[in-house]
Design brief:
By secondary structure, the chain is an alpha+beta fold. It has two domains: 12-82 and 270-333, 3-Layer(bba) Sandwich (FAD/NAD(P)-binding domain), CATH 3.50.50.60; 92-193 and 224-260, no CATH class. Helices cover 19% and strands 21% of the residues. 32% of the residues are buried. The chain binds flavin-adenine dinucleotide. Flavin-adenine dinucleotide binds at residues 12-14, 49-51, 54, 58, 268-269, 301-302, 312-314, 317. Residues 12-14, 49-51, 54, 58, 268-269, 301-302, 312-314, 317 line the site of flavin-adenine dinucleotide (FAD).
Length: 337
Amino acid sequence: MKRGNVDLYTNAMVREVTTDGDGLATGVVYVNTLDMQEYHILGRTVVLGASACETARLLLNSKSNWYPDGLANGSGLIGRYLHDSTGAGRSAIVPALIDRDRYNEDGARGIHVYSPWWLDNSQLDFPRGYHLEFGGGMGMPLYGVGFGMDSMRQHITDEFGNPSKNGGYGTGLKKDIYKLYGSTIGVVGRGESIPQYSNYCEIDPDTVDKYGIPVLRFHYQWTEHELKQARHMQETFEELLTSLGGIPLGEKPGADSQYGLEAPGRIIHEVGTTRMGDDPGSSVLNKYAQAHECKNLFVVDAGQFVSQADKNPTWTIMALSWRTSDYILDQMKQGNL
Ligand SMILES: Cc1cc2nc3c(=O)[nH]c(=O)nc-3n(C[C@H](O)[C@H](O)[C@H](O)COP(=O)(O)OP(=O)(O)OC[C@H]3O[C@@H](n4cnc5c(N)ncnc54)[C@H](O)[C@@H]3O)c2cc1C
């Protein structure tokens, strides 16, 4: 930008990628969100990084004679294999932490607890795996601290050693909150789900957003792999929490609640909608995130993921987009783009 080589368009809601008579990308059409008018910007190469679902939406909305089912969608796979991380959690109160001394625990958050996997994978009844993230401690109290006292008071006594009464207000309530503060810990699992052809997003033919652009609708079911993983998570959480002297809070989620497995999309790690691969019949992009069918079109978000391990996706998105950037420069220098 300092060198004047970048034109930055803000308040621009892209509707579609445009193509020419040879099927090459020519630019994008966007709606200016201030004047609600449509504009067309031309480009030698189009790079989409709108996030996995939005990029699928853009490509599916980019129809032409050359691409009747959406741009670069000859395989029919745009939107397919959408997948999110699995997620479940449990918390416990730890009596040893009740009414402990106060000190500053800022900076020592649970996210720093290193937890290498300790089980034998061959004994698991589901594929792949998950990692654990811990929470707790005496961070700055947030709005909402002290709620749920009716159920939490059972774990403490008053100054005479008697059960702390339910209800209350004023000094007594403050004392009880003070005692309980920092005495709960939580553990969540984040795991790898298995990408499925049958899990997908597509254009909703009946709904547009406020810019008149058709929106997505979603079809997504967890399979028995994720359910078994969540069951295993719950067993692990309970074993961990009780082994350290904690009393798990709430009921252990069972089959009726899918073992506490969060709804698809809830962990916000959506990937897979424009998967990469060597075979144009079974993938949308090649290994450089270049569309098989449209050589000057690239996707640098998590649409290109074929799987996402159990890890949060963003570092990998950044690494892959760096690699794609190098490839685009190289191809431009060689005159291929
Ligand atoms: C609350 C929350 C917590 C998260 N925590 C983590 C975490 O701890 N670790 C981790 O790895 N990941 C985390 N994620 C996921 C992470 O944010 C995403 O994986 C990542 O941001 C995706 O990067 P991206 O560049 O593909 O898309 P985005 O970051 O979503 O960027 C896409 C950009 O494109 C723009 N855009 C979209 N559509 C259009 C359009 N039609 N026209 C013009 N512009 C458009 C958007 O405004 C946005 O600026 C979290 C997500 C959320 C919501």
